[in-house]
Amino acid sequence: GYPAAEMKHGPIALIDQFMPVVVIAPKSDPTYDKIKSNIEEVNARSGSVIAITEDSNNELESLSEYVIHVPETHEYLAPMVVVIPLQLLAYMMGILRGNKVDNPRGIVKSVREGFM
Questions:
Q1: How many Å apart are CA 16 and CA 18, to the nearest integer?
Q2: Which residues contact 70 (CB under 8 A, 6 or more apart)?
Q3: Is residue 109's pLDDT more than 70?
Q4: Furthest-apart CA pair in the chain: how many Å?
Q5: How many CA atoms within 13 Å lie on the side-chain side of 22?
Q6: Which residues have C-beta within 8 Å of that of residue 16, sequence separation ≥ 6?
Q7: What torsion, rounded to 10 degrees, do the Cα atoms 107, 110, 114, 116 define?
Q8: SS3 56
């Protein structure tokens, strides 16, 4: 992941029609306008945007290919709410790629080392 201010310093060059970009864009974020600008930059490079924002925010519907709405909450609790769709997205992408998401390699080794 990259902060909104860092997008124009390298990662934007990697974006093309095959590069999905997941954007966490709560309207309460002080950098919300910069995030919207970054979404427009991704669209200009034909990237696919998946935005995660609050239920009441409809601004991103026209800018993003997909919008995942989460319940509104206090600014400090937002990461706990936003992580749920991110985890589900990562889980489903792992399944689609054919990875063993329920039994990743090396997990037994790391768990054993932690208890010894």
A1: 5
A2: 52, 53, 54, 55, 81, 82, 84, 85
A3: no
A4: 53
A5: 13
A6: 45, 46, 47
A7: 110
A8: coil
Q: Which amino acid is at 71?
A: P
Residues shown for the chain: 116
Burial of 15 per CB tally in 10 Å (0-12, 13-18, 19+) = buried
pTM of the model: 0.81
pLDDT reading at 32 higher than 80? yes
Residue 47 one-letter amino acid: G
- Which one-letter amino acid corresponds to residue 36? K
Quote the pLDDT of residue 90.
92
Among candidate residues 7, 16, 70, 94, the one with its CA nearest the CA of residue 48:
16
Tokens of 58: 């409809």
What are the tokens at 105? 């390699």
